[in-house]
Write a structure and sequence with these properties.
- The protein is elongated, with a radius of gyration of 35 Å.
- It starts with a helix and ends with a helix.
- By secondary structure, the protein is of the alpha/beta class.
- About 40% of the residues lie in helices and about 15% in strands.
- The relative contact order is 0.07.
- InterPro entries: BCD1, BCD1_alpha/beta, Znf_HIT.
Length: about 350
């Protein structure tokens, strides 16, 4: 009995009482937040109240004086896991690219270069993205012609299974490869001309658009690469080619074109221009204006700025030497020495 009491007293001194119920002796310590508990019920209460998962933070800072063999082995296993993770990503063809637009395959690189010549900023996603997998855009490099995948969104199109008063959703159609030299009116004709087979099949969905006709429709390109792009769009011209309409725009994989039978943008969207709207340009303009405002306070010439920069470095060396050779009482006349030093340097 005496040995059991001694063991209990030692354990109590080590963990103390339960920090949840404060009634019993603590038996467990949380690996993450180090809360002392006495039972499974108290453990669950502490996890629920503190939102704790009970997993030790393997990257938590531990002072060198408190490092033990357990911490050393934990760090060793953690580094091994990081190495295995990096090797696994290098071997996975779909996940080995960690930065967008770097080390693109040959066909994608030619597509982006050809789009750049057309003043189109084509952004290609990583291979594991669904939008990249769905993209069927093709570049006929011999003819130097793009065949774009286009997602057509007919705003407020009434579908048969919807109720008549529910006209808020859009009908979605996809064209795998659209010739960039055709006009938008020619590309959309198969959906609005009743003589076309596709138009007849989707008569119940596109009846309003077929009634208005191609001349009364408006085209809007879903904006990409701009602020609040989810609610912004560009106005497109029906009598211009797809190449001309996409010029000056940012395209992520393939364009999404919204079709309306009203001259204004679809509900929830606002129209923007294609010029001076990208985030990069906005950031660049802000930095340019800031640099222009700060220019009068800077050096007059680059040569003088370089001299002042060198002077600051030498000035730091001076302070290091002055502190090294100062007397014990600290009575060195730093001001006089610094004045002589400045005169010599400026000369």
């Amino acid at each position: 009995m005496s040995e059991e009491k001694a063991g209990t007293s030692v354990k109590s001194l080590r963990l103390g009482f339960c920090e949840v119920c404060a009634a019993k002796e603590a038996q467990y310590a949380c690996p993450k937040c180090e809360v002392k508990t006495c039972s499974v019920a108290c453990v669950q209460i502490h996890k629920r109240e503190l939102d704790c998962d009970g997993l030790r933070d393997r990257t938590k800072f531990v002072p060198l004086s408190e490092m033990t063999a357990r911490e050393m082995m934990s760090d060793y296993y953690f580094l091994e896991e990081c190495t295995r993770y990096a090797d696994d990503r290098k071997g996975d063809h779909a996940k080995r690219y960690t930065q967008q637009q770097r080390y693109l395959p040959g066909p994608q690189h030619r597509m982006r270069a050809a789009a750049q010549k057309r003043n189109i900023k084509l952004s290609l996603l990583l291979p594991l993205f669904s939008r990249h997998k769905e993209n069927t855009t093709f570049l006929d490099w011999k003819r130097n012609r793009f065949y774009w995948r286009i997602d057509w969104l007919f705003a407020n199109a009434a579908e048969e299974e919807k109720e008549e008063h529910d006209q808020t959703k859009s009908s979605h159609f996809v064209d795998a490869r659209c010739d960039e030299e055709l006009t938008l009116a020619a590309l959309l004709l198969k959906y609005v001309d009743p003589k076309q087979e596709t138009a007849r099949k989707n008569r119940k969905v596109l009846v309003r658009y077929q009634t208005v006709g191609i001349g009364g429709l408006s085209f809007w390109l879903q904006a990409e690469g701009v602020r609040r792009s989810a609610t912004r769009c560009y106005h497109l011209e029906a009598n211009k080619t797809l190449r001309e309409n996409l010029s000056g725009k940012t395209i992520v994989e393939f364009p999404t074109i919204i079709v309306t039978y009203a001259p204004h943008p679809p509900a929830g969207y606002e129209t923007i221009d294609s010029d001076k709207e990208s985030d990069d340009e906005l950031t660049g303009n802000a930095s340019d204006s800031q640099s222009e405002e700060e220019e009068p306070a800077s050096a007059n010439t680059p040569k003088k700025a370089k001299i002042l920069h060198d002077f600051d470095e030498i000035h730091d060396v001076y302070h290091a030497l002055a502190s090294a050779y100062s007397d014990d009482d600290g009575d060195t006349d730093h001001c006089g020495i610094e004045g002589m030093f400045r005169e010599d340097i400026e000369l």
